[in-house]
Amino acid sequence: MSDDKKPLNQHDDAAHEETIKVLDLYQTREKIQTRKLPGFFRDLRRWTWMPMLSAYFLLPWINLDGRQAIWFDLPARKFYVFWITFWPQDFMLLSWALIISAFALFTATVLVGRVWCGFTCPQTVWTMLFMSIEDFCEGDRNQRIKLDKSPWNVNKLKKRGGKFFLWGLLAFATSLTFVGYYNPVRELVPDMFSLSAHPAAVFWTFFFALLTFMNAGFLREQVCMYMCPYARFQSVMFDKDTLIVSYDIERGEPRGTRKKTANHRADGKGDCVDCSLCVQVCPTGIDIRNGLQYECIDCGLCIDACNTVMDKMDYEPGLIKFTTEHATKHGKTHILRPRFIGYVVALTIMTGAFGYNIFTRMPLEVDIIRDRNVMFRESAMGLVENVYTLKINNMDTKDHRYSIRVEGDHEFSYKGAEQVTVVEGEVMSMPVSVALDPGLMKSPNVDVIFVVESVDDPAINATEENRFIGPRLRR
Ligand code: SF4
Ligand code: SF4
User: Fold this and answer.
1) How many CB atoms lie within 10 A of CB 353?
2) Domain residues of the chain, as ranges?
3) Mind listing the pLDDT tens digit for each residue in 311-330?
4) Phi-psi label, residue 82: left if phi above 0, alpha if psi -120 to 50, beta otherwise
5) Which of 29, 193, 240, 425 could form a disulfide with 325 if both were Cys (CB 3.0 to 4.6 A apart)?
């Protein structure tokens, strides 16, 4: 690392110096070549991203009742999520689902810091996959740095070409799966390979593939550092009991190299051997010894690296560890604190209300529109008739036969189909009329209630109120 790139507050053996790093606004990004080291947190990350990745790639292939279990059918404006179909009128539910997800993220952040960023965020997971491909094709950190500096030759072309090819395949698979959530994937994939896919599907697949390629291949940590809004406001959620990756400055400083057999305490040195492995493994290229920085995504890889060094030196592990400010200062972390309890209570209430709404949601919607061209008409029998358009929206995942009737304070007679079958996910629209003896009307404008009920499942029913208009009353 060149001198001008040295991190803020860089320590050295002699003294703790504070320097101000001046950055050129248009400074070229220094490529981060990370070192791969085994350890507990690297293994743990595998167990967090593997289920998520498997779910992402496999979910669109699951079929339920003959259709894709998760399918965002934009042309039909319907979102199928397992057994539930969301309609445009369910937009509020979707908004609530997003708000609850955000709140769950905030709650987790208060307790365990940015573990979402370090362990499950798609940006981190795909970057990690792309880095593994890089490692496989171009070798370890030192070999990659050497390759970067070497002039173009057959070997470099082969390695770069292989890497770009595998990146491209992964980006294409990722993008095809993503588009498969919007177009039935079982048709999309064969169509794509037989070159008969819809041009829009082809465009979006290649567009998202390019974004994935650029994002995980080149932008990487810059997305977290400069584009992700969460990284900017996460510090607002932190308190002194939030778990953060922290370097034990008391124990580590003054840092410096030494022989394993040396009595470093007697030499006035701390436990940090200044090997810089914690910096070399960091996906955002920071030095955690400079304290908490907004670039840190809490991935724990520097802990693995440092523990490996501590192990080799026969020192206690934990020079860098997950801890809290309170634990560092007073040896105790308060898990149950007002802020966390507040988040949990709010999250529980919101999740409960959302779950209740989902499970008691009526998969039927009825709309009744009065014919505005004719106020009313009189039949040959002397009855007053009003004409309406009845719309029945079957929001269930199966067909239903519905019975239709009218109710109210008057003895209405209903004229129209008394039972209709509506296919799942369809809206049926039909003209109906209601008649009433004008002599029975207490006012020229009375309420009429339409009741639509599923014949096979009476629990599925809906009512809709409208106005019935008759002639002015003669006094
Ligand atoms: S400082 Fe450590 S925990 Fe933070 S991003 Fe770097 S490696 Fe991960
Ligand atoms: S890995 Fe540990 S010992 Fe090595 S520089 Fe980092 S903090 Fe010091």
Assistant:
1) 12
2) 244-330, 364-469
3) 999 999 999 999 998 888 88
4) left
5) 240
DSSP H or E segment with residue 302? helix 301-312
Does domain 364-469 sit in CATH 2.40.30.170? no
Question: Once rounded to an integer, what is the mean pLDDT over residues 67-89?
Answer: 87
Distance 131 CA to ligand 1 centre (A): 16
**What pLDDT does 8 receive?**
35
Taking the centre of ligand 1 as the mean of its atom positions, its distance from the CA of residue 332, in whole angstroms, is 23
Classify the phi-psi angles of 197: left when phi > 0, otherwise alpha if psi is within -120 to 50, otherwise beta.
Answer: beta
2 Cβ neighbours under 8 A, 6+ residues apart: none
Q: Report cis status (omega within 30 of 0) of the bond before 254.
A: yes
DSSP string of 142-198, one letter each residue: HHHHHHHHSPP-HHHHHHHHHHHHHHHHHHHHHHHHHHHTTTTHHHHHHHHHTT-S-
For atom 6 of ligand 1, the residue with the nearest CA is: 282
Ligand 2 pocket, residues with Cβ under 6 angstroms: 247, 252, 255, 272-278, 289, 305-306, 309, 319-320
The residues lining ligand 1, judged by C-beta closer than 6 Å to any ligand atom, are 245, 281-284, 286, 288, 296-302
Cα–Cα distances in angstroms (integers) from residue 118 to residues 16, 167, 224, 296, 406, in the given order: 30, 21, 10, 9, 59
Which ligand 2 atom sits nearest the alpha carbon of residue 289?
Answer: 7
DSSP one-letter code for 135: H
- Nearest alpha carbon to residue 177 among 68, 50, 49: 68
Which has more confidence, 54 or 78?
54
Q: pLDDT tens digit string along 209-223?
A: 999 999 999 999 889
3-state secondary structure of 462: strand
pTM (predicted TM-score): 0.80
Residue whose CA is at the smallest distance from ligand 1 atom 8: 299
- In eight-state DSSP terms, residue 245 is E
